[in-house]
Write a structure and sequence with these properties.
5 helices, DUF1091, disordered C terminus, 16% helix, 225 residues, 2 domains, Ganglioside M2 Activator Protein, Chain: A, three-stranded antiparallel sheet
């Protein structure tokens, strides 16, 4: 995993041939990788790159960061009381092979000062099974103090893309726009796999709506293929 953007990348390529032990053979070159990704100026590096590029996401210009497959696979929203909560948009859009974005637009028709959120995580293994997180969060308290560590991880991942970022009450349009996943914000080691994050939103102890998102986290794309 590349945790921070890398824009100055050099790769030293050496080829060895076995002959009473391995001995240098033909190739010993240092390649400016960022320059190479713009223009394949080195013929030997070009041959190496051509062998693996169709199996990897190492196929774009610098900077390089988040060398993992971490993206949404599905998003489902459901209102249980449309006299209080109405969904206008709830979908995922692909923008490239490696990246997709999530958009959600809902309206809360009446002010809500008492909001609780049940967060559960599931991991796919012959169907989805509970995994690691099952917690209920006082959302109005949380936006003041971020007291729940799991809630904090989830919130930090999407807060820059949303207006769901202030203290209660909540009323009117609630928007998540062009939200994409960034693995450097996870702060926890995750095994590769498919996950479901289910969120049940209660106003005044009554279930109002669900937002359920499935996503894939895969650290080694070469093994995945």
């Amino acid at each position: 995993m590349v945790l921070y953007p890398a824009s100055g990348i050099d790769v030293r390529l050496k080829l060895w041939k076995r002959e009473s032990g391995f001995k240098p053979f033909l190739l010993d070159a240092t390649v400016d990788a960022c320059r190479f990704m713009k223009r394949a100026y080195n013929p030997f590096a070009g041959m190496v790159y051509a062998i693996f590029r169709n199996f990897s996401n190492l196929n774009h210009s610098c900077p390089y960061v988040n060398a993992v497959d971490f993206k949404f696979s599905n998003f489902v929203c459901k209102s249980y009381n449309e006299s209080w909560v109405i969904f206008h948009n709830c979908r995922i859009k692909a923008v490239s092979r490696e990246k997709n974005i999530l958009n959600m637009n809902l309206t809360i028709l009446h002010p809500a000062n008492n909001i609780s959120l049940r967060v559960k995580m599931w991991k796919k293994a012959s169907g989805f099974k509970p995994f690691l997180v099952d917690t209920t969060i006082d959302a109005c308290r949380f936006v003041k103090s971020s007291y729940d560590p799991y809630g904090k991880i989830v919130y930090n991942i999407f807060k820059d893309f949303s207006n769901i970022n202030h203290t209660c009450p909540y009323v009117g349009p609630q928007i998540v726009k062009d939200f994409y996943l960034r693995s450097e914000l996870l702060r926890l080691p995750f095994p590769s796999g498919d996950y479901l994050l289910s969120m049940q939103w209660h106003f005044y102890k009554n279930l109002m709506f669900d937002t359920n998102v499935t996503y894939v986290f895969m650290e080694d794309l070469l093994k995945r293929t």
